[in-house]
Amino acid sequence: MFGWGKKKEIKETKVENTNTPAHSNQINEFVPIAVFVGVTNSENQIVQAQKIIENRAKSVKGIAQITTAQDGLGIATTLLAKRGQNFDAIFENIHNAAEILASELLLLGQCFLVKTDENGTAIETTKIEAKKHEPSKEAQKGLFDGLKRTSSKIAGGIGSIFTQAKLGDDELDELEDLLIMSDMGVDVAREVREQLSKKRFDRGIDSETIKEALAEIIEEMLSPYEKFDNPWTNENGPRLIMFVGVNGSGKTTTIGKIAQNLVDNDHEIMLAAADTFRAAASEQLLVWGKRAGVEVIAKESGADSAGLAFEAYQKAISQNKDVLLIDTAGRLQNRTELMAELEKVVRVLKKIDESAPHEVWLVLDATVGQNAISQAEAFSKTAGVTGLIMSKLDGTAKGGVLLSLTKTYGLPIRFIGVGEKVEDLQPFNAHNFARALVGLEN
Ligand SMILES: Nc1nc2c(ncn2[C@@H]2O[C@H](COP(=O)(O)OP(=O)(O)OP(=O)(O)O)[C@@H](O)[C@H]2O)c(=O)[nH]1
Ligand SMILES: [Mg+2]
Predict the structure, then answer these.
(1) Ligand 1, residues 254, 339, 391: which to mutate, most atoms within 8 A of Cβ?
(2) Which domains does the chain have, with CATH numbers?
(3) Per residue in 320-329, pLDDT tens?
(4) pTM across the whole model
(5) Residue 172 CB: number of other CB atoms within 10 A?
(6) Listed residues: CB within 5 A of ion ligand 2
(7) What rounded mean pLDDT belongs to the chain?
(8) Residue 145: CB within 6 Å of ligand 1?
(9) pLDDT under 70 in the chain at which residues?
């Protein structure tokens, strides 16, 4: 899971000087500081750590040495190749690196900032403790309440299926039907059923133990789609994030909520109202922009949306913004001419930076259930969707659609929306979502 980035959330504690060799021979030039990350030797976790570090290497200009606690060997020496301009910059950036790594590698182990001498011997070690980006209690409550419609259906159903402490074919059949009704999709429902049938229930079977088991299964299915990175930074220039989706799916509202959260976390951002179809569309975004205190680039309705996006991007670059959020007009996935227009927006942005847009987030309205699947397909083809946002999970009993969607498209889920207020948009967290979905409070 990722958070809102930037704002300092790191607590540091000095620990005793150690003589741990930091294996810094490969960073002779800039030896004094190294980030030393202890991870377990689980293959999977190391691979994950490597990925995070490689991603980071682009935005972190300093030099970090990442080693496992066990053998002291580098797990991601690629980062060593990246060099900062001068010592101060390195110090700052390493700190940055440590912060970022600490918050993201917390799951993997401990994170230390190790100061070394020229020989690579550690002279001072600082333990970095990152706050995990756990949603606040209120946010979790909000998620639980937001998913009430789906969860009460599932939880209620479970309650009436498991009246006897028995998990036989009849009960499994009924449960599978229940999951299909929550729009989990036939395949996923069958998979859940199979996994449940293999579980051992040492403490007996009742609706609570079944819910716990279901939450575990669902969490495991969804956790690959919880993204372990920070989407708010870019190597050069602003991070450009474009929002696409069908009419009324929640794009503008989602941008407004994200904008407010980014501003609250010290990001410099700009918004672009590239939905030039309706005058009301720009106005809606202008209201959110005003509330968050950020500039919104907008034009009269009927203006060329690709042109507007292009201008906004140039402006965001010249003003050194961190993030540019681009709103686009809603379009049905089967309207070819409108989909072509979206392609044009992407093409035009690429004239400025070949890698733009850096993210394309498809906003899906959860109440449409399985139709979300064909939307994901069409928008992926046209606009190269990199992540999903599911809005309006509070207004439907079909929250299970997230499972069939991820299974079919394998795209990460960035956020979920469980209401209209700013705090109702939450970074996706598989654990909390799975529990709330089956009606278990955290
Ligand atoms: N209950 C609830 N309502 C939401 C959520 N997200 C958006 N909405 C509402 O859904 C409606 C449509 O949202 P917009 O943000 O205007 O949708 P859009 O995708 O920008 O729509 P177009 O620009 O017309 O394509 C608004 O009334 C929002 O307040 C959510 O998570 N929960
Ligand atoms: Mg809109």
Answers:
(1) 391
(2) 10-130 (no CATH), 239-431 (3.40.50.300)
(3) 999 999 999 9
(4) 0.75
(5) 16
(6) 251-252
(7) 76
(8) no
(9) 1-2, 5-136, 228
